[in-house]
Structure formats: structure tokens, C-alpha cells
Amino acid sequence: MSTHVATDHKEEKKNPLLTGETIHVYDVNKVSAGASKRWLEKGIADFKVSPMTSIAYGGIYVLVGLVLAFFTWNNPLYLVSMVTGFLLIGPIVAVGFYCMSRRIEEGGRPTFLQGFDAIKFNIISLVSFALILGFLLIAWTRVASLVVALFFGSTTISDDLIATIASNPQTTPFLLTYALVGLFFAGAAFMISLVSVPLITNRKVDVITAIVTSMKAVVKNPSVAISWAFIIATLIFLGFIFGFVGLAITLPIVGHASWHAYRELVSERDVELK
């Protein structure tokens, strides 16, 4: 029998009840300042190995984005909330790309169906984590709507969002509050998901171990985590401004690169308790 433990290289405390078991310890590594750039370069390299497969997989989410945009286009605030929400659930969306990069790392060539196989590998933890991100997404949309109502009340903003905001004296405090709230939710999602989903799709870990490991990775590498979050946000934003179609390229690159972030930030070892 074995259990999983997340650690940052501190000495493990022995539990007499676990004597004779093997503990899979996940260590959080300190990475160099240029790590985020290195991950991006590796992500681009993986994309080049199998570009059509990556684009085909990313195309699924482009279609989903276009459908959602169609139904929210008349209300720009809903569209903005949707874009921010996409950043929250991005780690789950990128599952297929993690598996493709793992296959490339092993010396093989990735296939389209590998992403779907990954879902079955550790489905309980993956679904549990998806539910957590889903809760954050729902909370974000509710709070975002509350912020809009707080500053604009019953003002109609569905026709011309820019004109409405520009002519309203509450514009500056609204934008600051909206940005801060969005940053809070995005930061929370990023902190618990930096390495969680790649770890879940690569090892049979429970969702708590994955989240704790991810949070420790952020705490141990704050500057790198911030720069990596900025790169992810920039790539996703570029994907959106090109009518969602750009996501077919930027999303795969982010997904592939996130796999390499996980591989550098987390190492593992087995410890037998005696």
C-alpha cells in the first residue's frame, strides 16, 4: 500500500500507523529566473513536433468559444467575464496537451485520442479539481455581476459598453474594482493549478496533494510564477483578440509549456517507512 505526500524538501514526519508503507513524496524545486521563458520555448518546440494534432485539439475550444461569444456578444460584460473565466478553467482545458508533451518526452509521436485517454487515467481527482475550478468560475461571474450592479445600477449597457462606461462618472472606480476582483480570482485559480492538473494526469494523486504541491510551487518560486502567469494571460489574450481563432495556436503552446513547467517544478521519490 502507498500514500502520497507533497513536500518542499523538509524532513517527513513518521507515522507509526504507516510503518511498512511506501510514501510517494513530491518535492517542489526552486527554478532559475529564466524558467518561464524556457518553458515557453519548450512548449513551442512541442507544438512544432505535431502542429496539426495540437491545432485540431485546440480547435475544439475555438468552436466552444465562438458559440459562447455568439450568445453573449450583445452584452459585452458577459463576454469579458467569459474571457476571464476561460483563464480560470484553462488548466482543465489543456489536459490533452499535457499528455501530448509527455508522449513527445518519451520519444513517441502524440495522437489526437491521447488527450481523451488522460481523462480516464485519474478521473476522480480530475473531476474533483474541475468542480473546484467550476466553483471559482461561478463565484467570479456572480461577483462580477455584483460589481457591475454596484456601480451602474439599472443603467443599460448592453448596446455600447464603451460609450456607457466612458460617460459614467463611476468609470475609474468601476474599472479598478473589476480588475482587482478579476485578479483575485485569476490569482487563486493560478495558485492551485500551476502544476495540479499535469500532476493529476501523470500520477495517481488525490486532488488535495495536487493542490498543495501547486501552492508550494508558487510560494517557492513567486517571481517565476508571476512571470509565467503574465505569459499565459498574454497568449490567451492574443488568442481572443483574433476572433478566438488564435486560440487554436496559443492554447496548445500554453498547454505544452505548462507540462514542462510541471516537470521542472516537481520531482518525486519513494520513501519506505521503517
TrEMBL record:
InterPro entries per record: DUF2189
Keyword terms of this UniProt record: Membrane, Transmembrane, Transmembrane helix
TM region positions: 55-73, 79-100, 121-140, 178-200, 225-254
UniProt protein name: DUF2189 domain-containing protein
Pfam families associated with the record: DUF2189
Species of origin: uncultured Thiotrichaceae bacterium
Domain of life: Bacteria
